[in-house]
Write a structure and sequence with these properties.
The complex is a heterotrimer of chains A (550), B (326) and C (302). Chain A contains 16 helices and 21 strands. Chain A is of the alpha+beta class and 550 residues long. In chain A, helix 8 runs antiparallel to helix 10. The longest helix of chain A has 20 residues, at 2-21. The relative contact order of chain B is 0.14. Classes of the chains: A alpha+beta (550), B mainly alpha (326), C mainly alpha (302).
Chain lengths: 550, 326, 302
């Protein structure tokens, strides 16, 4: 045992020594290696074919959009959008948008980026056999055609405030000359997705499965050479291990720390700097308003608006939040993340009031008649099951805290921890009582809110149905400025809060931990890695990791 | 020879049965492939297209026939979740799992053998009692718990070893292969220790008992009576005999190591088969689950077979018996 | 911890002492093993604690004392082993957890033992095709890593009642036992006393249960003692993968699993249940060793 330990220490020293000797490599302004500690691994890097966050972060470096939202994340109109592949654009009538591509843009194999690529990309995103998860995001576009090699024409089906956003935000332009020959139904598994050729600031270098993806700066990038030479995404299945890598200085970036314990650890590590930014995720306990497994009839407990309101008032959301997140999250004033501009703490919500909650439960006939500590009515206990994915630490924690909160007002909660795919199957099929979900918002409320809470919304898993709410949302999404939209959004949020289809528990405030030698860190809240090409490592702060050259 | 042929045929039949059972069992499980966890919107049209493209919309028995047909051509199909051929994913993962389990086995046997022999030589004296209880204590650890503690102490606190992964992605493959190998060994220490040490404790106990058993037998007494020096007697006779029982354990140890590897690979972010298997089950990635069952059972059966062959080679008397015992 | 709980704890120790003294008088030979005494005492003590959990535990296992201020509180006189992520008292949960963990261990082992013994005995007794069929089944079971079988078996249930968990664990743990029993039976069935029993017309069931199995008891009992430990470890491993008892029910396994995310901040939340498992498994190993010695006829002379 002792001998073995000694041997391994010797081995460690040898390795460490070997590393230092080889520290010549790179010097100057365009140096540096940035290692991201990523949780999970994307299945492909082809942007049409995956929704994974890590895939998006990498794709931000490889594939450009025509234009992108600015730091304000204003999605209405086109004033706040930054040109990328398109150097400029103009409107040609109410339904036609013309993009002029930057003539300097090149694919990493040297071919120019053309309008044919743009038209091809649109067809790919909308082709049903590609089965892109973003297909519905571009449903209001009618066509994209090529006017000449550098001019692409977008035609819309209707006129609305976020036309420009829809045209550019979800589509990353793909190389027609490399993908044309790939059968559309094979795109998900195309070898291109594991060795992509892009047009962005970084070139693809290698992907070792379950280990890492490496990118290298494209020194000829037309919008300016990226300052950091190498980017490496390290894949780790477990968040705690990813954070340990960061703390032990084996990685440079972790864009989310999630718990106050992790933040405390990162703060104690001297080489790290913390960067807070608004989060795009909110979590809630969603009630199924229709009976478990039968969307035709109301749920025996949650069908009753008064009971739902009582169950909302019974939860001390602020206290739960403090227990789970400390100061790094907020209680959302409705179904929204802190990223959304409609965020407003003044929006009216139900108060935390256990007395009122108990009173209205009793008033609706739920009393503890048999003395077992659980309220009942017609011989049925006031009990329900909460569904959560076993893989989410935060939600496991919330479920246990809620269970105890509800016990105090005589409601019995049982927790079903199941695999994420089972959660997905059951909520989309309406076979559940209650569920804790975490929703990720696009930078606009106009896509998430209708999708999750209006009649016919594809992820309205609560089966929430209030036509007055739908009308308000409709009015809000069709307003042409934020000032006009704001009162409608507020009224809609107050209405949904009063109806209580769920208990809105937390909205994340993200904190990124980034090695302090990195300068000019700019994080766009909707996509933290979008501006990575402007980050830099000053030449006098390089460490060993930065000098390992190819 | 006929015995060997029969043994191999039986092994193939076992693997086939395991694969068949797995194939149908995983399709009976709740949850469907392609459905994201409840947080995202589920587009039924997209899911229908995907199910059709992968043939997952057909009844299980039709899928089974298609699977067998592909299998005879050496094709394991496309993974739903990894979005690549199953064979590619496994071809990359299996060597990694073999490196890890190989290192763990080596550690298990060398350490276990050494300790066991040492203890047997000093039976019931202080070192034996201390070591006996220590190994027993280690033997009783949950593997993943030991892993987490090792990671914490030697990785995060002492910085002696890297935290997770197979190699440092900054160094490899950017530097030459010699340093990459060193780096790999550096990364291997903690997971191999986690996986191997618990086994070593078991092996040590086993080896000690086996040697004491042999010591009671007549031929050792005879050798001793002939006046051969104590140490020689022990090392020659006892060791050789004990090794026989030891080889049997090799076949048995294999499935346990694979089980341990599932947890160890997750903790240490080791890019092996165990990690793929857990993910595949969680995400209902049917083709990968089936393929992992195929590979894992083939490895176990092969391990058993090799152990039997070694045993037969070492001791011809056992040739007929071992066909029965295993 | 307040005075009554300390007194209950002391009482538990006294009861353990008393049971141990009784056992020692009755089974002297067993206690000749160097650590068997300690091991049995530990097991008895834990069993007493488990049975008397409501008296000994200072807090209910589900009580979240103060989720903001007492989260991950280090061990103190009030919270003997500290508190966990949900501000629950670790010591109380450890005691209640003993109930469930020991019960799962014992019941799971019992299932495994029963199935394993019956299959092994039947296969060994009848031989020929019965043996071939059963043993190939065992081969199949052994050919897959058990955690893999369990993960799949558990995917079949939407939620897992404790009974099913025990059954699933038990039904995947009997393969080794059946081989062991079969080997014993194979060697016993040719002995004179078995032939004699058959000659006087005893049926197969009677021969197996009345004549063969009692003589194969030693290895079965030893493997049972080891089996409990394996089940405990397995339950812990499953909890680590997120499969196990419904919260807030504590078991040592899910206590470790719950605590793994705060290993750094609150090592006590995983350390103590981990030690509890290690100690029980260790004790059972010792007991198995001692049993082996005590039941081994060859040891008689020494």
């Amino acid at each position: 045992m002792r001998t073995w330990a000694r041997l391994s220490i010797v081995a460690a020293v040898v390795v460490a020594g070997a590393c230092e000797r080889r520290a010549a490599g790179c010097s100057g302004d365009y140096c540096g290696t940035l290692v991201m500690a990523a949780v999970g691994e994307p299945p492909t890097l082809l942007p049409t074919s995956t929704e994974e966050v890590v895939a998006r972060d990498i794709a931000e470096q490889l594939f450009l959009k025509l234009a992108d939202v600015g730091m304000s994340t204003n999605t209405i109109g086109d004033e706040d959008f930054q040109p990328l592949l398109a150097e400029r654009w103009e409107w040609d009538g109410p339904l036609t948008l013309v993009f002029h591509l930057d003539p300097r843009a090149r694919w990493h194999d040297g071919m120019p980026v053309t309008a044919a690529d743009v038209a091809f990309t649109f067809v790919a995103y909308t082709d049903s056999s590609v089965a892109s998860p973003f297909r519905s995001a571009v449903r209001r576009l009618a066509s994209v055609t090529q006017r000449d090699s550098l001019t692409a024409v977008f035609r819309f089906r209707e006129r609305y405030p976020e036309m420009f956003y829809d045209a550019v935000y979800h589509m990353r332009i793909l190389p027609k000359h490399l993908l044309l020959s790939v059968e559309r139904s094979q795109w998900r598994t195309a070898p291109f997705g594991r060795a992509p050729v892009g047009n962005g600031p970084y070139r693809f270098v290698s992907w070792r499965a379950a280990q890492a993806v490496e990118l290298a700066a494209d020194s000829t990038f037309f919008l300016g050479r990226p300052r950091i030479a190498r980017l490496i995404w390290r894949f780790t299945p477990d968040m705690q291990v990813a954070i340990s890598q960061l703390i032990a200085d084996q990685a440079d970036v972790r864009e989310q720390l999630a718990t106050p314990e992790n933040i405390a650890r990162a703060r104690a590590a001297q080489q790290l700097a913390l960067h807070p930014y608004p989060g795009n995720t909110y979590g809630y306990l969603g009630f199924n308003l229709t009976a478990n497994g039968d969307s035709g009839s109301p749920h025996p407990i949650f069908g009753d608006r008064e009971v739902r309101r009582a169950l909302t008032m019974a939860v001390d959301r602020a206290r739960l939040l403090r227990s789970v997140f400390g100061d790094f999250a907020k209680v959302p004033p409705g179904p929204m993340s802190t990223l959304l501009w409609i965020w407003d703490p003044e929006i009216r919500q139900l108060p935390y009031d256990t007395v009122q909650a108990a009173r209205s439960l009793s008033a609706r006939g739920w009393r503890d008649r048999d003395g077992d500590g659980v309220r009942d009515r017609d011989g049925q206990p006031l009990a329900f099951r909460v569904l959560i994915p076993s893989t989410s630490q935060i939600r496991r924690q919330y479920a246990r805290l809620l269970q105890e909160q509800y016990r105090l007002v005589g409601v019995r909660v049982e927790i079903d921890e199941v695999e994420p795919s089972v959660v997905g199957e059951r909520v989309s099929g309406g076979r559940y009582d209650a569920v804790i979900l975490a929703r990720v918002n696009d930078p606009t409320p106009s896509s998430g809110v209708p999708q999750s809470w209006t009649v016919g919304g594809r992820s309205n898993y609560s089966r929430y149905r209030n036509l007055a709410f739908d009308r308000l949302v409709d009015r809000a999404t069709s307003a042409s400025t934020r000032e006009q939209a704001q009162p409608a959004w507020r009224a809609a949020m107050e209405l949904i809060n009063a109806d209580a289809p769920g208990v809105f528990l937390f909205a994340l405030d993200n904190v990124a931990a980034i090695h302090s030698r990195v300068d000019d860190v700019r994080i766009r809240p909707d996509s933290w890695a979008a501006l990575l090409r402007t980050w830099r490592i000053p030449s006098d702060r390089l460490i060993d990791r930065d000098r390992v050259g190819r | 020879m006929a015995w060997l042929v029969r043994r191999i045929a039986a092994s193939i039949a076992i693997v086939f049965a395991v694969v068949t059972i797995t194939f149908f069992l995983i399709r009976l499980a709740h949850g469907k492939p392609f459905i994201p966890g409840g947080d995202q919107a589920v587009d039924p049209a997209v899911i229908a297209v995907l199910e059709e493209q992968y043939g997952a919309d057909k009844p299980s028995h039709i899928q089974y026939i298609a699977f067998l047909r592909q299998l005879t051509r050496g094709n394991l199909g496309q993974s739903f979740a990894l979005q690549r051929p199953v064979a590619d994913a496994l071809a990359e993962a299996i060597p990694n799992t073999l490196i890890l389990t190989g290192a763990a086995l080596l550690l298990d046997f060398l350490l276990g053998l050494g300790l066991g022999v040492y203890q047997a030589l000093r039976v019931n004296r202080l070192p034996d009692v201390v070591l006996g209880n220590t190994t027993l204590f280690i033997y009783s650890f949950p593997t993943f718990w030991l892993g987490l503690i090792l990671l914490l102490v030697f990785g995060e606190w002492l910085h002696w070893f890297p935290i997770g992964g197979k190699t440092d992605p900054v160094l490899c493959p950017a530097v030459d292969s010699f340093r990459c190998t060193l780096d790999l060994m550096h990364h291997l220490v903690l997971p191999a220790l986690t996986l191997g040490v618990v086994g070593a404790a078991g092996t040590a106990r086993f080896q000690r008992a086996a040697m004491l058993e042999v010591a009671r037998q007549d031929f050792i007494r005879t050798a001793r009576a002939k006046g051969a020096p104590e140490r020689r007697v022990v090392l020659r006779h006892q060791l050789r005999n004990a090794l026989l029982t030891f080889i049997t354990r090799f076949g048995l140890a294999f499935p346990f190591l694979l089980t341990g590897a599932v947890l160890t690979e997750t903790i240490f972010a080791w890019p092996g088969m165990g990690r793929i298997a857990t993910e595949a089950i969680l995400r209902r990635d049917y083709p990968v689950v089936t393929a992992v069952a195929l590979v894992a059972s083939a490895m176990v059966v092969a391990g058993n077979l090799v152990a039997d062959l070694l045993l037969a080679a070492a001791d011809p008397r056992l040739r007929s018996a071992s066909a029965d015992v295993t | 911890m307040t005075l009554p709980e300390w007194m209950a704890l002391a009482a538990a120790l006294l009861i353990t002492r008393w049971i141990m003294a009784a056992l020692r008088r009755r089974y002297g030979r067993f206690f000749r093993h160097p650590t068997a005494g300690w091991a049995t005492a530990l097991l008895v003590f834990l069993s007493v604690l488990a049975v008397a959990a409501p008296l000994v535990a200072p807090f209910p296992y589900w009580l979240q004392i103060d989720i903001v201020r007492l989260k991950n509180h280090p061990p103190s006189w009030t919270y003997l082993l500290g508190t966990d992520l949900y501000s629950r008292d670790v010591w109380s949960r450890l005691i209640y957890g003993a109930r469930i963990s020991l019960a799962i261990g014992a019941l799971g082992m019992l299932v495994a033992l029963t199935v394993g013994t019956v299959v092994g005995a039947v296969a060994g007794y009848y031989r020929r095709w019965v043996d071939a069929v059963l043993m190939r089944g065992v081969d199949i079971g052994l050919a897959l890593p058990r955690i893999f079988i369990l993960l799949m078996a558990i995917a079949l249930w939407e939620r897992l009642p404790i009974g099913v968990l025990v059954l699933v664990i038990g039904l995947t743990s009997w393969f080794g036992t059946s081989r062991l029993v079969r080997a014993e039976v194979l060697s016993l069935r040719e002995r004179d006393f078995v032939s004699a029993a058959r000659a006087v017309g005893a049926g197969p069931a009677r021969v197996i249960f009345a004549h063969v199995l009692p003589n194969a008891a030693a290895p079965i009992i030893v493997s049972a003692a080891l089996g409990v430990g394996n089940v405990l470890l397995l339950e812990a491993g499953l909890s680590f993968l997120g499969i196990g008892l419904p919260p807030p029910q504590p078991s040592w396994g899910n206590m470790i699993a719950d605590g793994q995310h705060t290993l750094l901040h609150a090592p006590w939340t995983t350390l103590f249940p981990g030690l509890a498992i290690a100690l029980v498994v260790m004790a059972l190993n010792s007991v198995a060793d001692a049993l082996r010695d005590a039941l081994d006829p060859r040891e008689e002379s020494t």
